[in-house]
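Aim 2 progress update. The chain analyzed this quarter is reproduced below.
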Amino acid sequence: MIPVWTGLAIAALALIAVAASIRPLRRFLKLREDVRGRLTDSAGLLATARDESRAALDEAQHVFHELGMLMSGFAGRRRIATMSIRGLGFDPAAAASGLIGFANALPAYGIERLRWRAQVERALKLRNGEPPMQRSRLNPALVVLAVAAIGVAGWTFVANRHLHHALKTAHIVRASIEKEGKRTQARAEEAETERRVTDAALSKVNAELAEARKSQAATERALDDVGAQLTLTRKANVAAGLALEKLKGELAASESARKTSEDQLKALADELAAAKTAKDDAERGLKAANDQLAQLKAAKEEADAAAAKAKEELEREKKAREAAEQTPHAAPQPTP
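Predicted structure tokens:
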């Protein structure tokens, strides 16, 4: 039913447009003929230069001014009749301004009269020697326009049937396209979400990798410090061993000297005084040697304590290095 009503509506609108444009078009053509007649009648009056009668000029000025006002009524409206008038090649606005300008230029003789008159003739298509338009009861152009409107209505009726079917197909295609577009948009949103999650995970991994690198650098610095301390401890241990060997040698020499002194004291009873003095000296030397031996023992104990401490630190560092090697993102630690 929609195509039928559409065709009938177009036909009705075409007939209404034709009927609405007939009477205004006839009134415009009658006004055009009045303007032609007034211009023709005033040609003799305007041919003289300076001896025109004042009353005749005033009357002509009033008449042309009224004609301009009537013509402006066709120029200021936006109707079907105005569109029809413009479609025939007439310019009501230019004709109205030309008539009013011609009326204002009548009292002064000069080129202004001819300019305004030419504008009016050009706007209303008033050529010299052109016969006036004859009025008829039925305008053939309007008949042709009405027949064309009826033909357009029939063609619209036939075309709208195919258009209706095409619209249904287009709606189906549009629905499928919109559905596919929604699916595509959902997939794009899912891909964007996955990309954001991946970027977040990558940022987290980069942060963990940076922390692991910092931890590796700190571990390397700690290993260097422990290696330096171990080297110093080894040197101290070697020095303590040498001092201990030297002390043992001195102790052995002192013991031999003491035995020799005792043997000499037993053998040389007669030299008791000298031996006693030598004994005292030997006892003082032994005491000094014992003091030295005590100092060396203390130094050895300190060296042993430092070596044990260094060994414990090495064990802790070894455990820390093994823990760092077992970390997933940590790089392998260099050996000291």
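The helical segments are 2-41, 43-47, 54-75, 80-87, 92-105, 111-124, 140-267, 272-326. The CA atoms of residues 57 and 107 lie 7 Å apart. These observations will guide the mutagenesis experiments scheduled for the next reporting period.
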